[in-house]
Each structure stands twice: as C-alpha cells, then as structure tokens.
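Issue 218. Parser rejects a valid record. Input:
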Amino acid sequence: YNRFMKKKDDVIVFGGEHHNLLGVVRSLGRKGIKPFVLLHDKSMRNEYKLLRSKYVASYKIVPDCEAGMDFLRQNQNVSEKPVIICTSDGAASIVDLNYDTLNDYYSIPNCSKQGEITRIMDKAIMGQEAVKAGLSIPKSVVIVKESVLNQYDIPFPCITKPLLSIGGTKEDIAICRCLKDLEIKTSHLTCTKIQVQEYIDKDFEFQLIGCSLDGGEHVSIPGRSRIITQPICTNTGFLQYENLDGTEPIHECESFIKNIHYSGLFSMEFLRGKDGKNYFMETNFRNDGNSICVTEAGVNLAYIWYAFNMGLDWKKEIPAFVKELNVMPEYTELGLWYTDVIPYSRLKQEMKDADIFMEYADDDPAPTNGHWDYRLLMASLILKKPFRKLLRHNSK
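Output the parser choked on:
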C-alpha cells in the first residue's frame, strides 16, 4: 500500500492523519508542488482519506514518529536536501531531537541546535521566554502527579494543561473551580507533570499563525484567526481570519521568535481578557491546524517556508493585506451539535456563513467525497435531530 520517495520529491510533510496535514498538502499543491507524505499512525490502517488528495505525490505510513525518523535516516540521500514540514508536535520534536543527524540532508525547522525546540516546548520554559520578550502570561504553577496539592500556590479558577504537549493528551486539559476539582483531575492524569494556570475571564481567543525564516530575521504574521465557537480542549472551532488591527502584540511575538532563533512554521495562542490585555497561552513549533485559512486569505505560509529553503523568491508571496474570511471545521462543529453544545440553527448558519471548510475543498474533493463520515455530516444537516437520535441509538 505504501509508495516511496522519488528523486523529484523535494518536500516532505510529516505528521498524523488530521486536517492539519491535509491543509499543508493542499497549500503546496496549489503552487504546483506535490509533496511526499510521511504519515505516522499507530493503527496502520489500509485506508486514509487524506492520502486520496490529488496533491499527494507519494507516501509512507509508519506506526510512530520514531519509525518516521528511521525512514528519514534511510532515505537521506534520495534527493538534494528536501524541505520538511511538521504537522504534529511529535513529528516536530523527533526532527528537532535529531537535528545533528538530519541537518546536512534536509531543510528542517530548528532553533539552531539539537533539542532546543523540544526544550522550549516545556510550558514553564516557554513562559519564561514569553516574559523575556515582553508578553503577559497568566499566573501558573507546575504540579507533579500524585503530589500534595495544598503545598502549591494555586490560582482558582484554573485550567490544567500537559507541561509538554508531546507528553500528554487532550484529556489532561480541564477547568477546575476548586481544590477538590483539581484533586479529581490530577488523579486521572496521563502525563507526569501539568501546568496549572490562572483561568482568564476572556473576551475572545485568537491565534497569530506565521512563518519565521533565518532564525527570526524575517517573521511573517499576516493576520489573526479569532475563535467564534470555542470547543473544549481545542481551538479548532468556527473562526474568522482577519487583518491585524494594531491591538495584537506583534513586536513581542517577533522578539520571542528571534530570541530563541527559531526557523519554521509556528502559531502563537492568546486570550484577550475582558480587562483588554493579551495573555500569551503557548507557541506551537509546527504548522498550525488552522493554517489553511491563511492560505485561503492569500498568504501561503507553507510555500514561503519551502521557497526560502529552495532559494526561490518568497518575498513576493506576502501581500500588504489579507482577504478576510470565515472558516468552518465541519467535523468539529457537527460533534458540537451532536452533543448539544450548539443548536441546529447555529450549525446551519455556520454552514451558510463559511467561506472555506477545513476538510472539504472544491479543487480537491476526493478526501471527503464518497466517505461515510462526510455523507453522515451532510445527512445530519438535512435530517436534523430525528437522524441524530437514530445515530445515538445505533451507537449504544
């Protein structure tokens, strides 16, 4: 089932089965570049809908990121320094931890030395770098699993997060109102350490999705994505991508990236508090799952990273203004409706208001067309709650 790299493959997209990877494939494909996909998935199934994209040149499926790293080592002479784009935290970390091995053979995201990206993925260290760059962060404390909680100065209400994104799961993220809530949550942790952070009374949440070249000498942040529908434990909700209005901490973000000498795709997450302040949440040192909205708005960040590393003219790819648009992650929103988080009227209105979708694309319908889950989405919208109740009955 696997097809392997060819000499013409000069860009590798490394990540899991997610609309993040699909978005990068489409971004590159629309510039005439069909990438090689290195897909890590422990189930090793025989069918992956994103591999049906017409923009995928060839691919290899591996059970985990370590096996992906083995594949990169074994194929490091297959072409002249292919560009690597990571779409998962695991892929970004394994590439970073093998910087000395890969750097002569691939153009990779980096902080100029081996292991530095992974080190800064630690949210405590990340917070220190954010403060150094002039960003405001919520009060936080690091808690070790099974420790006595009353020894810590914990701000309530608070939100828990894995200290390392690659070391925990979404289940480790929760809002706790009191010590008892936190005790219950920490008893079920999948990671050994968590960051317990002050819960901010927010006005809205936004991301600054960008690309850094040459260790932060050139940082491009074209606009902001503002979350409209906020699902639990993710920022992949219905969102608006819009031009910057001058209230975002762009200079501080550029300083953060330059201070750590980062090169590659990234995103920085913020809360706008009701007090008007911007609170830094975290930086993702990889392509962001929402980045297809930046491509559709007129700035192809994945291609800019590719063009820079291939010695092409990347500067012409950055316009003065972006096209503002609405973006719908249709599977996520269907799940929110299915679980009664949002009403059918809201789901239907979002479908109407959306300019683009995370999964479906007119120019590349194969990853969704003909698949039962996408047909389910369309049928659910047409048949409304009676069909949803039937689904619930059948799933028991």
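Fixed in the parser; the record now loads. Residues 385-396 have pLDDT under 50 and may be disordered.
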